[in-house]
Amino acid sequence: MSEHTTTAPIPTLEIKNLVVEYRTEDGIVHAVNGLDLRIEKGKTLGLVGETGAGKTTTGLAILRLVAQPPGVIVDGSIHLNGENLLMKSEKEMEKIRGKQVSMIFQDPMTSLNPVTRVEDQIAEVIELHEHLSWNESLAKARDMLELVGIPGERGVDYPHQFSGGMKQRVVIAIALACSPQLLISDEPTTALDVTIQAQVLQLMKNLREKYQMSMLMITHDLGIVVEICDLVSIMYAGRVVEHGSLEDIFNNTRHPYTEGLFNSLPNLEDRKAKLKPIKGLMPDPSNLPPGCAFCPRCDYAMEICHTDKPGKVYRTEDHFVECHLYSEQNIGEKVIGK
């Protein structure tokens, strides 16, 4: 009898040891510092952290859109379906962007060209990547508008004739026009009110299932993470300090920073309870501490935290934390209390 060896499926996205710097006259800004990320086919990873953590830079690096200069991808690899994007030429990347990987940028108000009809902006992407005629591209553009809940005949309108929520839907239609395998979504609901937020998130969930695509959801909102993500990476000062499933991160919190994020949320059961914001500020990325970057703000900091960077310690196969409080022996025990 011959033995069958099963190879693990290739993930949609795999980032290893990504380092991105912005080299300015005032010094080097260390935006992303040895980042590892992995997203399987059809899964959504939430990348969570404060402003300045390096989340958007990570998204731009995947698309190779980090502004050069001053931005430089110094080290690491970014594999999309097994192919290293950092080895691709700019001409090759132009074919990949919008077709294999798309990004919904942070502000829908500024993502659209104000003097071009909405359907033309969607059709442009379709014509470029799918090599259809202009009329065929326009017809598909109107279908995409219908798909995101906008009547196709409104394609002749201009962005200023749409509300914030509808503009965001147009941006999503552009991003999904060529059925990408990976969708990067950067704070997709920031500019929207709560009701429209819920509608947009539901739309994105439906479209993810329809197209079986993978998603990287960049956000600071833990409510969005619960709503749409399978896995969560907590990012701080350019590194993932804790990673795991929703269950791991929400119910088996290990990193003091993750604990701080939860403690700074309002307590709906006790409305008189005071918020506990994380003390201090994110470190200056051009002058990071030699040890753990979170050390100056951490209530549990020890001597070693000031001098040595912590390595990964795994609680389960999927749940790891970068923190000196834990060793392989005690990672199962909860050292901090949420």
Describe the structure.
By secondary structure, this protein is of the alpha/beta class. 30% of the residues lie in helices and 22% in strands. The chain has helices spanning 55-62, 90-96, 108-111, 118-130, 134-147, 164-176, 194-211, 222-228, 246-251, 256-263, 303-307; strands at 13-24, 27-39, 44-48, 71-80, 83-84, 101-104, 182-186, 214-219, 231-236, 239-245, 312-314, 320-322. A hairpin with a 2-residue loop joins strand 4 and strand 5. It is globular, with a radius of gyration of 21 Å. It starts with 12 loop residues before the first strand and ends in a 16-residue tail after the last strand.
Strand-helix topology:
Layout: E1 13-24, E2 27-39, E3 44-48, H1 55-62, E4 71-80, E5 83-84, H2 90-96, E6 101-104, H3 108-111, H4 118-130, H5 134-147, H6 164-176, E7 182-186, H7 194-211, E8 214-219, H8 222-228, E9 231-236, E10 239-245, H9 246-251, H10 256-263, H11 303-307, E11 312-314, E12 320-322
Parallel strand pairs: 3-8, 3-9, 6-7, 7-8
Antiparallel strand pairs: 1-2, 1-4, 4-5, 9-10, 10-12, 11-12
Helix pairs in contact: 4-5, 5-6, 6-7
Distance between the termini: 53 Å
Largest sheet properties: 8 strands, mixed
Estimated share of beta-strand residues: 15-25%
* Poorly predicted ranges: none
Order of helices and strands: EEEHEEHEHHHHEHEHEEHHHEE
Protein traits:
22% strand; four-stranded antiparallel beta sheet; 11 helices; alpha/beta; eight-stranded mixed beta sheet; 30% helix; globular; 338 residues; single chain
